[in-house]
Every structure is written in C-alpha cells, then in structure tokens.
Amino acid sequence: MSIATMQTLHTTDQSAQLLAFSRPCRQAEPFSDSYEHLKALELEATMLLARTYFKRNSGGKQDQDAALPGFPLVNSSSTLLEVQAHHERVAAENRRREEASTASGICLSFISFCDEWELDRFERQVVMLLLMQYTAPDFIALYGNCDFERGRGNGMEIGTLLSILCDDFREQLAHRHYFSVVSRLFSNDLISIYGSIDDSTNILDEKVFLPERLVRFILGDNNLYNSCFRYIKREKGSVSLEQVILPSEAKDEVVSCVANYLAGRADGSLDGLDGFYGYGTGLTLLFYGPSGTGKTMLARALATHFSRTIFTLAADDMREMPGSYDEILGTLFREAALQGAIVFLDECDDLFEDSGRASRALLLEMEKARCLIIMATNKPITLDPAIERRISLKVPFGIPNAAIRRGIWQALIPDAVQLAPDVDLDDLAHRYQFSGGLIRNSIFLAINMLKPGQGSLLTREALEQAAAKQVSTLGDEQQICRHITPQVTLDSLPLRPKQRAEIKNLASVWKHLQGSGSGLAIIISATDVTAAGHLAQALAGECGLKLRSFEYEKIMSLSDRDHMIDPVTQRKTTPLDYAFSPAAAEASMTLFVDREGMMDLMLNQDREQMADQFMRELLIRLRKQSGLFCMITTEVSAHPQLPPEFNLLVRVEHPGEETQLKHWEQLLGRLSPEEEHDLLLLAEQHPLHLTEIDFVVRQAGILAAIRRMDSRPLLGELREVISGIRKTSAVPLLFGGE
C-alpha cells in the first residue's frame, strides 16, 4: 500500500501530517556532515524497531495499560499502518538528503562504506541496525525494552534481523542467504558471528555483530585499537618520487599502473570486475632485488605521491604478533581497504613458501583484496604458483649503473648540506658500485663525522672515508678479503727500465679494454711473492684501481658450504664467486696470492688433468669476468702451458747487480775490499729481490747472534740462508737486461 493510499484511510492528526507530506516539497537539504547523517539513520533504524514492535503486538492493537517503549513519532494510539508510513517517510527523506549530499560533494562515511563494498538495500539495512546497536545508547536502550530477544549486548540475532527487515515469513526465507558463509557480508568479514556453527545450530538464534574496525571507519575514527597494530608500522609517506632514482622506464610504469588503479577504485570503474572475476581486485606489485636498491623507498614515495597511508609489516614481526596468520593478515588488509591505504609487506620471503600457513593466509587475503599491495624481498624468489598468479606486476631492482648512482648521490644530499668544491659526485659514482642504501649510509656517516664548528660543508675526504667504511664491512664473514690502497708506484720500485715501461704499457692496455667491457687476467711470477705483490700494487695504482686481495690457498680450502654474502647483491654466494662478484668498490683489481707455488704445479698439467681440479672453476670465472684479475705466485718454471683464459705471464725481474749491492751494503754496513768482492760473486750467483735480501740478512743475523753473539753475519751464513730458500743460481728474465 502506498503512502498516498494510507493518507486517505486515516483522519488523525498524524494522517493529516502524512497528507501534507504528499504534496510537492522543497528541495531536500544535504546533510552537513556524517554525524548529522548518522543521527538521521538512528531515527530510521528506530522506526524499523517501532514497525516490528507494532507487528508483534496484536497487529498494532496496543494494550492501553502496557507501557509503550519510547518510540519517536508514535504513541499508544498509533496503528501499524501509521508506523509503517512514518518509517517510509523517514527512509525516503534520508535517501533524498543523501542524494543531495552526494551532489554537493559532501562525503558521508556510511554511504562511502556501503558503496565501497557494493551493498544492496537489505545489506545496508543490516549494517545500519548493527551499527546503531553498537554505537547509539538511546537505540540500544530502546531495543532492549522491545524484548525482541533474550540476550543483551552488542549484536542482534539473525532471526531478529530478518523479522525486523522482512514483511512476512516468505520474505524471511528468501533473505536467509544474506547470512550464509559465502555471502558478501560474511565473506568480506563485514559482519561477524559469535561462536561457531555446526549441523545442530539453529542459524536464526545466532547473534551477529559489526566488527569494531568497521564501526570506527563509519564513525570517522582512524585510530587503531587492535593489539596487532603495535607491530604494524603506519605512516604517511615522507619520500618524494624525485628522491627515488631508478631507470625512468621502470619507475614510470609503476607510477602509471598505481595511478590508474587508484583512479579506478575511486570512480567505481573497478567494482564491476569483482563480480566478473569472482574475487577481489587488489593490485599486487612485487619488488625484488638486493638490499638497499630502493624497494622500500619507492613504496613510501608512492604513498607520498598519492596521499595514502602505508601499512608496513615485516614477515619476521608476524612471528611475534598475537593471533594466527589469517587473523593478522585479515585485519591488516581490511584496515587498508577501509582507509584506501597501501599494504607493504617487507622481507616477505616466508610468505612465498609453497603451501605454508602464511602463504595460504596471504592467498586468501589477496583473493578478497580491494587495496594496493606491495611485497618486497631481497632474495631470489620461488613463488607459490597460486600467489604468482595474483601478482599483477613484478618489478626487478638491480644494482644501479654509474649514471643512476650519480643521481642517487645527488638526490640524497640534504638541502641544508653544502658540498665542498673538491667533491666530485661523478667520481664517487664510478668508484663505488653502491646501492642506494649504501650511498645513503655514506652520506649520513660523513655528515655525522663533521667536527663542531665545521658547519654543514661536506668534503671529498669525508665522503671517501665514509664510503670506504661501507666497503670494509660488507659480506666477508670468513675474512678472506683484504681491501688495499696501493702504497707503491712503478717509479718507486727497483725495476729495470724496460720492464717499468712495459708495465706502464700494460696499464694503458687495461684502460683501453675497460672501455670495451673486456676483462684482463695476468700472472705475476717472482722468486719472492712479496716482490710480485709490490708490482701488482704498482700496476693497480697505475690503472687507478684499489685491490681486493685473497689468499689463494684459503679460497681453495673453503667448501661450497662456507657461504658468504655478496657485497653488492647481499645474497649468499660461494667463496670463489664472492671473489669474482662485482665489488662494492667498483674500481678494484681482484688479486689472488699464491704463496705456496700451487699455480706452477697446475700450469704444468695438461688440460684434461686441470679440468678435475680447482683451476677449472677458476678458469670458468675468468672467462666471464670483465675486470682486472691478477694472480701473484712464486717462480713459474720455464715454458708453462698458459691457459688461454690468462692473457699474460709477467716474470718480475731482479734489480740490477748495482742496486742489489747497494742494498746489501746498506744492511751489512761498511765492507772490506775482500768482502765486497765476495758479495759481488754472491749477487752474481744468487740474484735476489730487495725483499729477499732483507729476509736473508735478518735470518743470517739470527744465526750469527746464536753462534757467536755477533749481530753481523758472515758470508758463509748468508750463503747458508740463501741455499735454504733458493734451488737455482739464476732465473731467466722475461725482459732484457739494463
């Protein structure tokens, strides 16, 4: 029966009011805010109670002696039809004012919530009643006075809700499906039920309630009360997109994808896809790559750029949180959907385990998600296939090239900090193959190293010292790598002129090859490894490089189980791969020190034998490497079978006899003519490097002190020590004499 028909049947004052209401009315006034709208909804919900109360009590014929609950707009003389008319009038007025509010651009939180979850008329009324039963004291008291159900407290029985919202039993049967486990209200956790349900349960007696987080959203209370949010970081982004230096194509793709998604969520164009696909339309991005490459920074920058809250949860924190994975992730995702926030799951490797509890819980939430999800991992990923299908876009984050690194150095210098004129960011970008995280650490450390009174001026020296500290602490748990800055130069070494010139030419060849991306591998052989090491240092310095030095025997002795952390990718790697990984300090020579002469043994084996030994793995790395590699070793026998992976064998020449004699005399002191003659014969028979002469004199001096209590050794004692360290009287030279 329509409102107009009812008006003709009743002549009471209230009927007259209804008749007046049927006339053309003025344009509806929009609600001023959500609070006024909720007060209007409370009246609408109260009239639903009144209608149900009048239906249950003799068709609306009230006992004059019975106390009528304090319903507005009605009294004991009101009829059921009048109460129904009042309810319809209030509901219609609310709908008109809601439309006027939308047209005026006034956001009503209850309407936004219902629109977001695409609730139909019946579902909206369920939420409205449960909201009032949770938040409106007058409604709660009135509901209790109606004696619709035995219990008290938050929530309503399903049977009571059906009787309030449905006109008859047939309609109640038709609407029972709204409370099934697969209904929109339950599957999206918009309402919850007390206890559990089994085959013995009468569904009509079960009480449902509106979860607290949904009540907060509708009331406009963005504070978090759930205990799990003690572990979930909530923040507004503070990083601008301009501070995130990535390849422009990758960055633009991510920003465009997120912008389109958020626009689709805002204008409702994505809502239809939920029903079409049968599950949620959350946008899931996977950021993967080494630590410090910008994954977290980009997530925060997206929050800043699109004015979104970002909820950050690390997988490790989930183990400390109360509740199951399902409860934790469910709470997080629903809160993000309510607030239009971003879910950022950091270091989420455990969530990718196939068929793990966390993986199943994540999959369930991704199925229903209506928000932006960003997952990040530092490790190579093996995804559960079901989760992989839910990832919309995978974004790799690699170690930045020199051009990108230069941009990162520039972007991470605070505005309040000035750079000294000697700072060369291009040089820093080329010398240090840093991720963005290491660049930030270097700048931060350099700023904190400034002494009081220095102001905010960053010098080249401060930045280089800070960067060097980053390099020295990366990944070497086994302590097999020494970082060396060359301390000797070619001009300072006692080299013959021709060899000095050839080594300088070798440095020029390397610089040329560096531009073409080709590597260079050399062997430096000497009767004394220390002398070979000095030449390697001088060569590195001539090439503008530092050194990463490894003991060859230790590399060989470590097994593949002795995993190390790659200094650039921050992933586990074997010792040999660690040695050949791109160094954080990009401008470095990789140096292997063979003190035991094992290289000579290997070079004298044929290729078949060599393939069965450690050398095979070394040669594989040499074929792939594009840097400067140097193996220093003891004297290599004549005409070795040099593998093609090595470009050159350099035998370090002994200094000229005159240089050797001067060094002998400097250590032994003033010599008689006879001693000088004997020493000349010694130098001719046993040419030595200066470092070897130092060793011989020191050892012979110890013998002299023991035998004669004299610190000055005799010639025989010198020969005795030499015979212990040398088996031959002369060494063929690769290059000619002086």
Structure, described:
The strands form five sheets. The protein has a six-stranded mixed beta sheet. A six-stranded mixed beta sheet has the order 12-14-17-18-13-19. A three-stranded antiparallel beta sheet has the order 1-3-2. The longest helix has 24 residues, at 80-103. Helices cover 49% and strands 11% of the residues. The chain is an alpha/beta fold and 738 residues long. Strand 7 (342-346), helix 17 (357-368) and strand 8 (372-377) form a beta-alpha-beta unit. It contains 33 helices and 19 strands. It starts with a helix and ends in a 13-residue tail after the last helix.
Helix share, percent: 40-55%
Radius of gyration: 41 Å
Number of strands: 19
**Rounded average pLDDT:** 81
What are the low-pLDDT stretches, counting only 5+ consecutive residues below 50? 1-24, 728-738
The percent range for strand residues is 5-15%
SS field, number of helical segments: 33
Strand order of the largest sheet: 4-6-7-8-5-9
Principal-axes geometry comes out as: elongated
Largest sheet: 6 strands, mixed
Quaternary structure type: single chain
Category by helix and strand content: alpha/beta
The end-to-end span amounts to: 121 Å
What distinguishing features does this structure have?
single chain, 738 residues, alpha/beta, disordered N terminus, disordered C terminus
